[in-house]
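Structure request: Outer membrane receptor proteins, mostly Fe transport, Dyadobacter koreensis.
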Amino acid sequence: MKRNFYLYLLLMALFSATLAKAQTSKISGLVQDLETKQPLAGASVVAKGNIAGTITNAAGNFEITTSSTTLIISLVGYDRQEVRINSNSFINISLKSSAEELDQVVISASRVEENILRSPVSIEKMDMRGVQQTPSANFYDGLVNMKSLDMVTSSLTYKQINTRGFNTTGNGRFLQLVDGVDNQPAGLGFAMGNLFGPHDIDVESVELIPGAASALYGPVAFNGMLYTRTKNPFEYQGLSVQTKFGVNHIGDGTDLGAKPMYDMAIRYAKSFNNRLAFKVNASYLKGTDWYANDYTDIDPNTPVENRGPNNPGKNSLNIYGDEVAQSLVGIGRVSRTGYEEKDLASYGVYSLKLNGALHYRITDKIEAIYQGNFNQGTAQYTGSNRFVINDFKLIQHRLELKGSNFYIRAYSNQELSTNSYNTRALGQQINRTWVQDLNGTTVTPDKADATWFTRYAAAFNGTISGVTGKDNNAARAFADRGRVLPGSQEFDAEKERLIKVRGLSGAGILSECKLEHIEGMYDFSSLLKIFNLQVGGNYRKYYLNTGGTLFDDKDKNLTNDEYGAFAQASKSLFKEHLKLTLSGRYDKNENFDGRFTPRASAVYSVGDHNFRASYQTGFRNPTISDQYIKLNVGPIIILGGAPSNALGQNAYENSFTSASVSAFGSAFGKEVQQGVPFPQAVANNKDKLVKSDVPYIKAEQVKSYEIGYKGLFGKKLLVDLNYYYSQYTDFIINTVVIRPNSNVLAADGSVNVAAAGDIPAGNIQAFQLYTNATDKVSIQGVSAGLTYSLPKSYRLNANATWASFNILDANPNNIPAFNTPEWKTNLVFSNPKVTENLGFSIAWHWQDSFDWYGSFTEMRPGKINAYNLLDAQISYKIPSLKTIVKLGAANLTNKYIVQAYGSPAVGGLYYVSLNFDQIFR
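Returned structure:
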């Protein structure tokens, strides 16, 4: 059925293209600057209603054959112009220089082209000019200056973005598309920032939708969507080269000194007869990652006033191995000696991106595309642990057939992660390789921790000759005898060995997961005439392969299927003043019930003033990990919530709540100490046990209401105001249950005494289950933006965002952390043409403090202090060399800031770049 659907779309597209054929004529012309009368090279000339077009040559001339009566001429830095044409004519076109196009065209808000002023939902756009002029280290970092957007840094090569709350360092609630391709590795379940995305040199534009976009884009677009478009080789031809040299780690508080950063990129594109075109891209970035070196003692079992470097039980934030701790009789809490992250991680990071695309215009209205991407890189990721995403490869293939009113797209994402590892696990495992018993014999890793604490207790209690008793430092020194030290051959050998060992006895991570996706859309508007209608759908299949290290997929063909379909109808009324839009989407995953997500919006326009209101719903299916993880970590089994994954475990169906097991154990133990016989103590307290009622996992849900205004004053001032209110429910959570070997309930529905007896006998298994909370919470927020085009090409952009979280009556343990500052502001002042060749840009970002909750610190809060960032760049154009020299700084004042607790502090990055563009055009 799905295949027939896409075949139908293809046939309709071809039929539509056939109907559109008409008498063609050849048009030639000249495009020039309105003021200087200089010819404009590289201007796009497209026949309205077609996808085929051409670009002007070095002399500003073009030639196009078309049946259309209207040409659309555009060039970055100039106002877009539509020109009526006659057959076989020559036309002169003068484009007016624009400091900033305030009424840009966007596509992602409605999946069709529309003026950004009349978008039915809030949307932000960074065009190619913004990409070129950002003072940040790259376009992706520059997104932080968009209103509503939050950014957190885990690594020099990995930054994660989010909108409208519930932020994480691995955001499975936010969709990132590059040329329509979901940029997530299938096993990770979220996009790795721009580690596997396009380089600046090939980016044409970026559009941001804050808030749920599930009605058009499916379950991943729960919190919002980022859509990046790369340059079409028909429109952007020639050779472009960018070289960037930078330096970071200046004044970072270590004695390691400043570190260099290199970023080199090359792009070449060529068109043949305006029918066949290709492009190739290659880029390579290399640098030294930010150091995670916060050694704050965060041990939850030590009172705050007793924490610190002298705490024998300290658990330092970025030291690993010291999480292993025990309470020793007569001594107190003691932790093992850990290793600093810098000795375990790979701080030499890089990013390699290779890309090629072939475009063929079958007709003026149909274009076929093949694109292949190979990405490989290293980054640090802060999740439940600190992970080194090491030599991670993401291979993507995309096939697309598109026309002016349809597209069919198929793509695949294949991840290859064979050298990645868990830094915290690595520290713990190295600690288990060298421990000696009291006779001086090195013990096996499974006995190492217990033996170390035995050594410590013996030394502290004064039973070791030559070691001062009652001295924690002396006891630790004795317990650490034989410890392998960072920098030694032994340490390096164990580190290399354990990275290759996967599973609980090592630190290595294997993932060779893949996803395949096909989707299509057809725009029936030209056929219906009465109203606009778009219809589309998609099918996706996941293939899981972690070798049994994460999922229960060893020697198994573990897959997951999902599909969806959407329709959107819009109608303009009252002489185009009112535009009404209705959207609806149905999605089905093989493990969950189908779900319908509607969206309704209205935009009322009076001149350049536009008022909008919308109601939209969204949902997020559990990630692949949420569904299929099956990991036995010793005392507990982490079990994903898909029914097929839990089959045979009997954990959801036959278990006690962990709280009731604790209550039972306490009461039972007290009676046994008082001399009550074992069976009687069990029978007396069994009714304290409560059968768990944990449902299988399902999708999260959101309902959102939004009103806004966007308007132009005098073609110089753009005002954008937005208010939203959203309600969330069914958040995905974890809960711990205890499964006895016996049936939980007896035949009469009471607690089975045999199951109660299993608990003190140890015939139980603990499970961490994935499920949903029924609690409801709400958020509301306001964003405001002003863009002012000043005389002489100066422009000022200012925005502010306020977000408020209301937990209502919900249990805080059932709600993901909001992890979002209440206030944040941005101010950008720039001028690309202070003189004919000189330009600059300054960007200031500020956000207030908030508490960060993350799995890295077991959901205990860590303070993120208020901070501000100042980025700046100055550029100089050398026309004779077609080169722009750019001198800039990200975090100019070099204030070291932390954006997610447990992640590194980020300082200044100072750079100079040379951008050679349009060579050999």
